[in-house]
Amino acid sequence: MPFPGVEVPHLCSQCMDYPCVSACPVDALSVDPDYGAVIVDREKCTGCGDCITACPGTVPFLHPGDNKATICDLCGGEPKCVEVCTEAGYNALTIVNEEPNIHRKLYSRNPIDTARDLAVNMFGEKGEEVIE
Amino acid sequence: MTPGGYAGKYLDVDLTKEKIKEVEYSDKVLEQYFGGRGLAAKVLWDKVGDKYPELDPLDPKSPLIVFTGPMTGIYPGSRICVSGKSPVSMGTVGSTAATEFANEIKEAGYDGVTFTGKADKPVYLLITDDGAELRDAGHLWGLNGEKTLIKLNKEVTAELSKRKPNVGLWKDPGMIYIGPAGENMVRNAAVITKLCHAFGYGGYGSLMGSKNLKAVVAKGRGSLPKVDAPESAKLLWRKTHQILIGRSQFRREGTGYAGYSVGAETSSEPIRNWQEEWHDEKSYAGPLFEHRYWVKKKWADFNCTTNCMKISCIKTGKWKGDITDMPDYELQAYCGTNFGIYDPEANIHLATLADKLGHSGINGPNTAGYAVELHQRGILEDSDFGFKPKWGDPETFDRILHMMAYREKIGDVLAEGTYRAALKIAEMKGLKPEETLKYAVHVKGIEIGAHGTRSDADYTHDISYAASVQGGDHTSVAVDGYSDMSGAVFTDSAVFCNFTYYGVPQSLVFDFAKAITGFPITLESWRTVTGPRIVTLQKAFLMMGGPDLEWEPVKDDDNPPRFYEPLPSGPYKGKTTDKKLVDTKLQTYFETLGWDERGIPSKETLKKLDLGFLEKSMSRLR
User: Fold this and answer.
1) Is B295's CB within 8 Å of A122's CB?
2) Cβ-Cβ contacts under 8 Å, A58 against chain B
């Protein structure tokens, strides 16, 4: 989004039905039983990109290094991003412990779509022009 | 092996022949000039050499240089530097702006680009990991800044996403571009990046326009270059960050509260083209901007921990849809008080307009304010403008900024920048040059930033502008010839932001520089050798001048006449810059840097600083 301040972090939101996991033709994706994070088996992954297409938010991406699917694994329950954000003093990221719920999936959106909505929120009608 | 922090390759683009090649600079050159402002000056010399005085900056042969530095992207607050022979001052200016373009170009594997020649039709350059290509920009030419940004962003994003469909594009490409002012070669036009960040000083927008180059777009998918000592760099980054995050005033207010406080407190804000420098207009107070117009209060470019940007948006009324950042202090002053305007909404509108048109928000409005003062003095008439200009009237300045960008009526003359416009108007009206120049607030053609010297209460003093090799540039002022070498000269060459520099202990910053590059760089070596080397080279360029003007040594190393008039109002009423002090300090400044009493670098200095190549040109001046 070429509008100031409208930059959206783009992360896996652990949908309850895990469309990426069911889309994988080689069973390379699995769900972490403790944290609900999607785990990629890098040995099995063929880099076909089906999980990217299946994800409502196009969250997975192929790592430029090995061309394998990459999805946030929540660092085994202790996300590094939260740690550094807290250490840095921004406190923008926090760990929220909540039960799985139906809304979760709705957070999985393409960042461009989210950015468009934020643009309208911030800039009003001008933001709407950007959506067109 | 490439030193740490550098990608190691620079692009060299010949727009006439449409040839792009990769060049490298030796480790010695990189160590001696570092990057950004310093390296750009050296590269400019290598390309032009002794023919410098005959080179018209707007000639196709004149190079446009866009360089990052080794610390860009790694030290908090990344920026990129645009340089070349300045169409305004005829010297060089290291003009920097904060933008993701800086990271993207480094991630694509290049430290910078130089352009020479002139494209026969409008083009833009697209830099990716796969190399660089020139592309047609016919459909973008003539568009204002905002439209250019949106259109180009959409186009390039769509294409790059298509190139790697499975990977997509996680983040927009970075770009620098020019608006109509740059296209029409308004001399002091800016190169713009993002929506509203400008490379203002130096007038490189016109240089870019003269090359028919509308934009440069970069998208890298790689990582930033490796640093020499990663573990130390990590530690230093944490330390730096801890200091910067504690600067809560910047984080809370940015410089968006200064539009009121600099005038009311330190009496150094331009009012009606510097006729006054004091005001106590409560209507212009920071909270009035914040409460009504700021839609986001913490925003920063990539890797910046200062977070000084706040975003303003006008949501209703005739200026609906105007978006700018903050406006920061400089634009609050130049697009506000300098026009006699104390209304936040009008200020936001004019600041947005200046960016959209591609004016430098400081230099363009300085010229506009100058024109209105000439009208006030009866030198310019209503017929020159086509309407009656009034102080404090947003409509007046809206029209003048348009007239300048599109070179209509008197705008055609004003588009030459304040200094040249003053000379032209004197000629037009049959006056002596002094009669118009006495209202022109510039140093060596570069209009002065919004910090006056008369009250002496701000950070700018007597020789701050007078001795500076970048003229009126408020981001790189001269203090005493020794300590300021380690300030802006360093940040512009390592290329990162001033606002992530001041407040951090200098020894820490130089340790950081050493950890990144592996060069044996210290505060001491920068102050005594590298800094003076860069400034001496810039000074030499300035003295050599250009085909249409030459600066007279010492006489032109001075403040504008207005800065010697006593302040007419406020707590510092009657105070003014001390001419005697300026003269003495100037000589001390020259002495510290090893320049002679006329400010010309001496033979010994050139030898000491390994600038022997300048000797031929300098002996001619001596």
Assistant:
1) yes
2) 168
